[in-house]
């Protein structure tokens, strides 16, 4: 869940003195050392592979994002073993593409509760309330979560 994701990111940042590591920071570690220092488990080989690709400039994510070539980014990331729909959509959000909502079990449970009366639904169905926001779907989702949180507190 999200707590594990935060723990992994915090540990990754410790590799680089509190900042998210650059590819060379990751590549200075063996897979075994990466697993020891960061609780990423089976993801270690994927992380190292992505760092190698970034270092070799065969995964120019920032360049492609600045040119708004998000379909190309999806294609490239989708070709990497260990990159699934959730991680790809999450990386796209970080690169400025907001037309998809990264859906994990926590997001699915939230959407199910908010819009579908806790009925069992698919990921595709879960995000339907946001489809009319088009390329800003993720931003609308995030904003609605913030507003709900503020409404549930006495701010």
What do you see in this structure?
The chain is mainly α and 155 residues long. Helix 6 packs antiparallel against helix 7. The two termini are 27 Å apart. The model has no long low-confidence stretch (mean pLDDT 93).
Kindly, what is the distance between the CA atoms of the first and last residues, rounded to a whole number of angstroms?
Answer: 27 Å
In the predicted model, the low-confidence regions spanning at least 5 consecutive residues are none
Number of strands: 0
Apparent shape: globular
Order of helices and strands: HHHHHHHHHH
Largest sheet: none
Topology diagram in text:
Layout: H1 2-15, H2 23-27, H3 31-37, H4 44-55, H5 61-66, H6 70-78, H7 85-94, H8 105-115, H9 123-126, H10 137-151
Helix pairs in contact: 6-7
Descriptive terms for the model:
mainly alpha; 10 helices; globular
Short description:
The chain has about 160 residues and is mostly helical.
